[in-house]
């Protein structure tokens, strides 16, 4: 579990995060959503220690990253997997070489152990047989799966994903969402996904944090979001006619809850 408590971050005289508090739960897909410029990227960078807020606490299972020394932060990052927006694969390395990279850099495994772990991760993301291919020889969706395999190679406790569906077609995006969800539950990872993809929000959003103008505006899940009365959230999530119709359908077919 990662807890963010009363975090404020400014650049010069502009406050980007205003006293933000939220909790990201272990074994669930935690999504951060919000418009461009809302502060969600600054929040992610603050959580992973790339930015240092002026005040607040950021707790990794009780460990405050803001109080850690440089060496302690380096140790913590060994527990973190990162999935970047553009996959960030090494073009000169094969699929196998890309997945083995963190194992060679950050472990004392023998070469045989590294190979075994890399093959396991490649198989887990359904890329068996693609070991010898280079990124230029595979599709964007396959590249993203290689990036996921690399991100889980060190068996992380925490997984951060920045726009994992960027540039992918809708069908492939759904497959990536399902893969991230499966891995999160299977390995009990605290997964945090920064996304603009409303299909992801409504499909795998077990814990959703909506950031609006630097404030934590709303927290809930993919079922609760249909019934929210938060105007800013509704304008963001249900901006298109299609999603408005989906929302109307879901709400009209829901059974009234005991508190209604």
From TrEMBL:
Q: Which Pfam families match?
A: ABC_tran
Q: Which organism is it from?
A: Paramuribaculum intestinale
Q: Which PROSITE patterns match?
A: ABC_TRANSPORTER_1, ABC_TRANSPORTER_2
| Stored InterPro entries | AAA+_ATPase, ABC_transporter-like_ATP-bd, ABC_transporter-like_CS, P-loop_NTPase
Residues in ABC transporter domain copies: 2-238
Q: Recorded GO terms, molecular function?
A: ATP binding; ATP hydrolysis activity
Task: State what protein this is by name.
Answer: ABC transporter ATP-binding protein
Instruction: List UniProt keywords, sorted A-Z.
Output: ATP-binding, Nucleotide-binding, Transport
Entries under SUPFAM superfamilies matching the protein: P-loop containing nucleoside triphosphate hydrolases (SSF52540)
């Amino acid at each position: 579990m990662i807890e963010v408590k009363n975090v404020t971050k400014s650049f010069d005289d502009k406050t980007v995060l205003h006293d933000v508090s939220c909790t990201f739960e272990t074994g669930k897909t935690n999504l951060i959503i919000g418009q461009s410029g809302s502060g969600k990227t600054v929040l992610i960078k603050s959580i992973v220690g790339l930015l240092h807020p002026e005040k607040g606490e950021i707790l990794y299972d009780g460990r405050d990253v803001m109080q850690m020394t440089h060496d302690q932060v380096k140790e913590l990052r060994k527990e973190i997997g990162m999935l970047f927006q553009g996959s960030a694969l090494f073009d000169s390395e094969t699929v196998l070489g890309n997945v083995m990279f963190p194992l060679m850099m950050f472990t004392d495994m023998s070469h045989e152990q590294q190979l075994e772990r890399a093959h396991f991760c490649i198989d887990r993301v359904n890329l068996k047989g693609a070991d010898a291919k280079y990124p230029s020889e595979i599709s964007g969706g396959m590249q993203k799966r290689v990036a996921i395999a690399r991100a889980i190679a060190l068996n992380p406790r925490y997984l951060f994903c920045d726009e994992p569906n960027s540039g992918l077609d809708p069908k492939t995006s759904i497959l990536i969402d399902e893969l991230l969800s499966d891995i999160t539950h299977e390995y009990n990872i605290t997964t945090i996904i920064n996304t603009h993809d409303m299909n992801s929000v409504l499909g795998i959003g077990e814990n959703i944090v909506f950031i609006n103008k630097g404030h934590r505006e709303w927290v809930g899940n993919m079922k609760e979001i249909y019934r929210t009365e938060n105007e800013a959230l509704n304008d963001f999530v249900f901006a298109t006619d299609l999603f408005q119709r989906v929302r109307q359908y879901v709400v009209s077919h829901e059974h009234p809850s005991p508190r209604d």
